[in-house]
Design brief:
Blueprint: E1 7-10, E2 14-17, E3 20-21, H1 39-42, H2 59-70, E4 77-81, H3 88-101, E5 106-111, H4 115-128, H5 133-140, H6 146-155, E6 161-166, H7 172-175, E7 186-192, E8 204-207, H8 213-223, H9 230-239, H10 244-255, H11 264-271, H12 292-309, H13 314-322, E9 330-331, H14 349-358, E10 363-367, E11 370-374, H15 377-386, H16 392-406, H17 418-433, H18 436-454, H19 459-477, H20 482-497, H21 501-519, H22 524-539, H23 543-561, H24 566-578, H25 581-586, H26 595-603, H27 608-623, H28 627-645, H29 650-665, H30 669-687, H31 692-706
Parallel strand pairs: 4-7, 4-8, 5-6, 6-7
Antiparallel strand pairs: 1-2, 2-3, 9-11, 10-11
Length: about 700
């Protein structure tokens, strides 16, 4: 871990700092050691639905790329840059397809549009190249550098590879963690709208511009061969700025007119009715030219007009709804919800989606093992910009409802779920698009998504999601809005899990002070932040302050939520761990030691809080010298953890470590040694042999072997 002090985890989350014997009281049970569902498989194919029918006017760049990939030299980084819709991804897709069809080389595809997607994709690359579950889990938990893990496995790859980093329009995120590197084992291909050389030191840059007139006309004729002559196609291509995306949408429209087919001349005449606007593509550092959003608007508007003429008014409505989200794969399940009825009849959603697919306005893709719909970013930008103000409130409300239904209502500990990360760009895009009336609801959903990520152990994604959501929400709601403060609090909790204790303390103190002043000391948001803050204080060596704050949290939650609420019981369970043995016996008049039974009565035997209380209870019994009771209790908890999370997760190893202590205390030394040997081996594989967690386990193993009581 990194932070103000260096420490290592023992038993059920206890940390022994170099500056004093302190404790972490939040269990490591927010995730599972299961392989990431849908992750590793997804990097083996482009997340773009389908490659172009024919790649026009890209022969020169394709030859250069083929030569580089086929040279077996490796170590090259190529950057394809150009305005949105110019076909950068199409070139990358075509090369990827050629590489993967030939034997002996692997293609790996990562969406690098945002930090969360980039990190998830690169960890999936590591899994594909042989990283073990323990290593991946440690990287997601922030216990080892994720980029180092990925590139170590890429460097050791048995097969040469092509790695595509697609949609890298914010190249600064590559520097956060040093994600972009070179390797003698493969070639890296980046697509981006940002061409500044400062972003790509040592890389070879290739501009992808609009098509020459003849090739642009061929794109239209590839898609709609019976709509007109080559010269007619060229005139329409000129009107569309010869932008591949606009040409593709136009060709898709023309090819699907059956009853009353349009000619290219008729299509071009309609385009001439709009003068257009000459702008530079947002974010592109390329030659000036027609704004692709304007060109695309001219194209898709004709398609939408045709939908209206055919009585398919639901298709434009669905496209406007999709434009509230990101240009990333959107799970189809979101559209199968009653909330869509605020925008279009739910029974007509299937028909509307098929119309968009037929006209090439959207496509079906797979992400994290989930069927999704995806549309081009320039298309969605242009649709959003053209949406009239009177339609926006209903669209925002519907989008928030759909996303709200997709995020767990009460996020719980569980196996790592890659499907949660698919929702992150959409939650943030909705916050960017939405107006003030829906901003608070959208921010609350994004914060709950951050909680869900946190509770599956993906602390880096949780922090990034909460921090970005808070920044976006603050612009509309102000710094002291309840939802903004709650999101900041979640970011602070994630900082703590990443070991950045000093930053976490500063952020959580600031948030708690504001919440207490605005909402009161016993408000659930205030006590939630207080609970996170006491975890940080314990790891900074301020035990008395932490215990006092924890007791305040218990009192506040009891008052506001009631004694049987899971959050109240969880805070009380933390007292079982934090208090010395003598105080555990007297706390709450002795009632604290009966907490596991109370949790089971209110929540059930398999609830996360019940398992945590039983774990802490076993530790307290061990400190009290009641070793047989502690041994029986922690053995049962260990079995439950393994069933739920798998064998590699930190809380499982922590429980086994405590079990080794109770086994040794009862005289079963050989069993204690076997348990700790397994713990140390698993930590060494996941974290490395010199990580403090591994060293702590090795010290206890040495104590078992020598017959001493463990440290």
């Amino acid at each position: 871990m990194t932070g103000g002090t260096d420490g290592h985890a023992e038993d059920h989350g206890r940390v022994y700092q170099s500056r004093g014997d302190q404790h972490i009281t939040e269990h490591h049970h927010y995730g599972g050691g299961q392989p990431e569902r849908g992750g590793p498989d997804s990097v083996r194919r482009p997340a773009v639905g389908r490659c172009p029918v024919a790649l026009r006017d890209r022969s020169e760049v394709m030859e250069r790329l083929r030569a580089s990939v086929g040279s077996e030299r490796g170590g090259q980084v190529y950057v394809l840059h150009g305005m949105g819709g110019s076909g950068k991804t199409a070139v990358a897709c075509a090369l990827f397809d050629e590489v993967t069809r030939a034997p002996g080389r692997v293609g790996l595809w990562v969406n690098a549009a945002d930090r969360v997607s980039l990190r998830a994709g690169m960890l999936a690359v590591a899994a594909d190249r042989g990283a073990g579950d323990g290593e991946l889990l440690a990287a997601r938990n922030g216990l080892r550098p994720a980029a180092d893990l990925v590139w170590n496995h890429l460097d050791r790859s048995a097969e040469p590879w092509l790695l595509v980093l697609d949609n890298t329009d914010e190249p600064e995120i590559l520097r956060d963690g040093d994600w972009l590197r070179s390797s003698p084992r493969g070639t890296v291909l980046v697509t981006t709208r940002r061409a500044g050389p400062r972003w790509w030191p040592g890389a070879e840059l290739q501009h992808i511009g609009v098509l020459p007139r003849e090739d642009a006309a061929l794109v239209l004729r590839d898609l709609a061969p019976h709509s007109g002559t080559a010269e007619q196609a060229a005139r329409v291509a000129d009107r569309l700025g010869r932008l591949p995306l606009a040409l593709t949408l136009a060709g898709g429209f023309l090819s699907h007119q059956v009853i009353d087919p349009w000619t290219l001349d008729a299509y071009g005449d309609r385009l001439e009715g709009d003068e257009g606007v000459r702008l530079i593509d947002r974010g592109a550092e390329t030659l000036s030219g027609a704004d692709p959003r304007q060109l695309v608007r001219l194209t898709w508007q004709l398609t939408l007009d045709a939908f209206d003429a055919r009585g398919l008014k639901e298709a434009p409505a669905l496209l406007r709804l999709l434009a509230r989200f990101a240009a990333e794969p959107l799970p189809l399940a979101l559209l199968n919800h009653p909330g869509v009825g605020a925008v279009l009849p739910r029974a007509r959603t299937e028909t509307a989606l098929r119309a968009l697919l037929d006209q090439s306005l959207s496509e079906l893709v797979d992400a994290a093992g989930t069927r999704c719909v995806q549309s081009h970013g320039i298309l969605l930008d242009s649709v959003a910009a053209a949406t009239t103000a009177d339609l926006v409130p209903a669209l925002d409300t519907a989008a928030v409802r759909l996303l709200d239904a997709a995020v767990p209502a009460v996020p719980d500990a569980g196996p790592h779920d890659a499907r949660l990360r698919v929702l992150v760009p959409h939650a943030l895009a909705l916050l960017r698009r939405t107006g003030a009336p829906s901003a608070a609801d959208a921010l609350s959903v994004a914060a709950r998504l951050a909680v869900a990520l946190h509770r599956t152990g993906d602390y880096v994604s949780a922090r990034e999601t909460a921090r970005t959501a808070a920044d976006l929400g603050q612009r509309l709601l102000g710094a002291e809005h309840r939802a903004v403060l709650a999101a900041r609090s979640r970011a602070g909790r994630a900082l703590f899990r990443l070991g950045r204790y000093t930053e976490a303390e500063g952020l959580l103190r600031t948030v708690r002070e504001a919440q207490g002043r605005l909402f009161g000391a016993d408000d659930p948001d205030t006590t939630d932040t207080g609970y996170g803050l006491q975890l940080v204080l314990a790891n900074l060596g301020r035990r008395e302050e932490a215990v006092a704050l924890l007791r305040e949290t218990v009192g506040g939650r009891r008052s506001a939520l009631g004694p049987a609420h899971p959050l109240t019981l969880r805070a009380r369970a933390s007292l079982l761990e934090m208090l010395p043995a003598a105080e555990v016996v007297t706390e709450e008049g002795g009632a604290l030691l009966a907490l596991p039974s109370e949790c089971e009565r209110h929540l059930g035997p398999d609830h996360t809080v019940t398992l945590g209380a039983r774990h802490n209870h076993a530790w307290a019994l061990y400190l009290l010298g009641r070793h047989e009771e502690a041994d029986s209790g922690i053995a049962s908890v260990t079995d439950a953890y393994v069933r739920r999370f798998g064998p590699e997760y930190p809380v499982v190893l922590a429980a086994r470590q405590l079990l080794s202590r109770t086994r040794a205390a009862l005289g079963h030394r050989e069993e204690a040694i076997a348990l700790m040997t397994d713990v140390v081996e698993r930590r060494a594989r996941g974290l490395g042999s010199e990580h403090p967690f591994t060293v702590a386990g090795r010290n206890l193993l040495d104590a078992h072997r020598s017959g001493r009581r463990g440290p």
